[in-house]
Amino acid sequence: MLIVRFVLIFSFNLDLDGAEFTFVHYIQQLLQGLPLYLNPEVHPYSTVLYTPLNLYTVFAICKWLGFNYIYDIHAIYIVGRCVSFLCVIGTIWYVDLIVKIYSKDKTIRLQSIFIFLLIISGHAYAFRPDSMKILFFVQFVYYFIQYFFYAQRKLDLFCMILFANLAFLAKQDVVVYVMLVLVINFLLKRN
Fold first, then answer.
1. Are 127 and 82 contacting, i.e. CB atoms less than 8 angstroms apart?
2. Which helix (H) or strand (E) holds 46?
3. Cis peptide before 129 (omega within 30 of 0)
4. d(Cα 124, Cα 134) in Å, to the nearest integer?
5. DSSP 73-119
6. Closest of 108, 157, 114, 166 to residue 135, by C-alpha
7. What pTM did the predictor assign?
8. What pLDDT digit, counting tens, does each position of 13-45 carry?
9. Which residue among 6, 84, 131, 170 is the one 20 to 30 A from 163 at the CA level?
10. Whole-number Å distance between alpha carbons of 8 and 29
11. How far apart are CA 172 and CA 150, in angstroms?
12. What are the pLDDT digits (tens) for 123-157?
């Protein structure tokens, strides 16, 4: 599965999943020197509905590589898809860390990674903020488990808060997931 997704990074398809062309447009806007969040009441009418972390990450890489906003459109797609793919790989590593807390059995760990790969959508591999959000949320969950159920180290608390904030900066809907985890923990532990 990962090999196919890796090969698709270099596809000339304008939309592997989830309106990638929209995010390319935002990068083109930034490469032109325009702000990400334009005035929605003035022409050109542009409303960015996403938080900035993923877009500014891809923009920084594209700027560092010296991309032109007109001539390097395919390269912008590749950079955005590479960032997403690397976030998926990072998430796999953290899923394994979480499972390793409860089981050292390699078969269970591999099955957990396989199930994770089956349930994530194509959005995670496309140039979208979803894979970055998933990575930071899974990191939040890992440090949440460490802090509330095991070591209760200040470093775990710091990392938990940091990754919850980074997840929000990647995509704002993660606030619902974080709140659900906190409410469930409160109901279970009452502390």
1. no
2. none
3. no
4. 8
5. HHHHHHHHHHHHHHHHHHHHHHHHHHHHHH---HHHHHHHHHHHHHH
6. 166
7. 0.92
8. 888 887 888 899 999 999 999 988 887 787 877
9. 6
10. 25
11. 29
12. 899 999 999 999 999 999 999 999 999 988 999 99
DSSP state of 56: H
Give the number of residues written for the chain.
191
Residues 27/36, Cβ–Cβ less than 8 Å:
no
CA distance 59 to 140: 25
Looking at residue 24, its amino acid is V
For 43, the token pair is 């022409």
Residue-by-residue DSSP string for 1-38:
-HHHHHHHTT---S-SSS-HHHHHHHHHHHHTT--SS-
Place of tokens 């409860």: 102
